[in-house]
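Q: What would this chain look like folded?
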Amino acid sequence: MRRATHAGWAVCATAVALAATGCGGGADTSGGNTAGVLSSSWGDPQNPLEPANTNEVQGGKVLDMVFRGLKRYDPKTGQAKDMLAASIDTKDSQNFTIKVKDGWTFSNGEKVTARSFVDAWNYGASLKNNQKNAYFFGYIDGYDKVHPDNGSQSAEILSGLKVVDDLTFTVRLNQKFSGFPDTLGYAAFDPLPQAFFTDHAAWVQKPVGNGPYTIESYTKGSQMSLKKWDGYPGDDKARNGGVTLKVYTDSNTAYTDLLAGNLDLVDDVPAAQLKNVKSDLGDRYINTPAGIIQTLAFPYYDKAWNKPGAEKVRTGLSMAINRKQITDTIFQKTRTPATDWTSPVLGTAGGFKDGLCGSACDYNPSQAKKLVQEGGGLPGGQVKITYNADTGSHKEWVDAVCNSINNALGNDRACVGNPVGTFADFRNQIGQHKMSGPFRAGWQMDYPLIQNFLQPLYYTNASSNDGKWSNKNFDKLVDQANAQTDTAKSVSTFQQAEEVVRDNMAAIPLWYQNGSAGYSQRLSNVALNPFSVPVYNEIKVG
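A: My prediction, written as C-alpha cells:
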C-alpha cells in the first residue's frame, strides 16, 4: 500500500497550534494525558483520505483504523484472513464470487453491502477521479475502458464487476491472477458508504468508515483525533478510548517528547537515538522485522539515466555503497544490507531469495569505478540523492551513502545529498517528474506477496513506478507469474522478473528495515504489525 516513498517515513509536521511548547505540547488535553486515549507521532497525509487515493504510510495508518475490508492481514503473521468476506470462491483464478458477511455497518449507520464494494472499486478505477491507487483495479475486466492509457474513458463502470444480491458480487479479471484474493486486504479495496458519493466534499472533510475508530477532527499540521467506535461490529474492537495522531516535522523532537511524558508512542525511533534507546526505554522499545525495503530509484524520464550504458553506471553506484558499514554504524543493526528487491519477512517460500542481487550489491570500489567509467560516467559529473528532510533521519544515511560513493570513485564531489523540506513536497516533486538523479524510495509492503514488491514499483506505468522504468520482458514475466495457479511456480516466475530488475539495476536496493517503536509507561500491549505500523486497536492505556 504504501510508498515508504510509501516507506514514507513516519512522522510529523511542526504543529502551528503547538508551536509554543514544541510538537508534543505539555499537558495535552486531547491526547497523551486523557484517560483511555493515547497520543502517537504522525505526519500529514499527502492526499485526502480516500482509500483508493492513499498510497503512503501516514494516510495508510488512518485508513487501517477507520476501515475494514474483505480481508485483513494478521497483525502477527501478515497472513491474509477473511474479515468482511464470508467467502471468496473461484474455479479458474479469473472469475470470483464474493459473499459479504451480514451485520456490518458504517459508523453513520449505513449497511455494508456488496454495492459498498462495487461502487468504491468503480470510483477508484475511474480515470476522471484521478485516484493514485487506480492501478490496483487494473486486472478487473473493463479497466482499459474506464482508465485508458491515452484519451478519455469510454465507460463509467468496470464491466468485470456485477452485484448479484445485497451481499454477493462477482469479479471477472482480464487474466488469471491466483493471488487476487490475498490483495483484498489492501486499503484501495475498502468499501465506501453512499455518503461518500452523495456529499463527497463533506466526507473528505470528515471521512466515515466501518473500522474500530471514527475520525473526530483533523487540523493539518497539528493533529488528528480518532475515537473508539462503540458500535463497531468486528471482533477486533479498540481496547483504548481513542488515538490522537500528532504531527511532527522532526522525529527527534517526537522522541524527546516521548521521554518527557508529552507523547505516548513513537513508531519510528530516529537513527540518532538508537544508541540510547535501550537505556532510555528498556523493554518499552520495540525492534521487529518488517516488510520494508529502502532503495534508490532513478528518473528514467531523464534521458541521461535512460540511455545505453546507464545500467553500468547504476550498477557501479550500487557497488560503491558499503551497506554493512552503514547499517552497523548509522542504524545500529536495525537495518540489514539488502541482497534482493523484496523482504525476508516473505520467507523463501514466499519469494525472498537471499543473494539474488549477486555481486552487484557487494561493496567493490575498484569494480564500481570501472563500471561507472564504462557506462559513460556520472550524468552531469555528479549525483544528487534527493530525500525528504523532515522525517526518518534520512540526512545521516544519505550523507553516509554519498561518502561511500565518493571514496569508491575517488572524487569527494561525486555524490551529494539534496534535501527537500517535507515529505509532502518530496512526494509532489516526484509525482511531477522533477527528479534529476537518484532519490529515496522506500517501500512498505501492501500485502505479503512477492508480487507486491515488484509489480507496483517496476511494471510499466504501475501506480508506484515513480521513476517510470519500463521493460517489456519484466512485464511479460509478471503477467505470466500472476497467471500461474501453482504458488511455487508463480513465485519462481516472479523471481525471474526480479532478475530483470537486477540486470538493469532498475533501482538500487539498500537495506531491509526493521520496525521500531518506543512507548510510554502509560501503555501496554504495544506491538507493530509486519508492515511496521502500530496495532493501535490492541493498545491498552493506563
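The chain has a mean pLDDT of 91.
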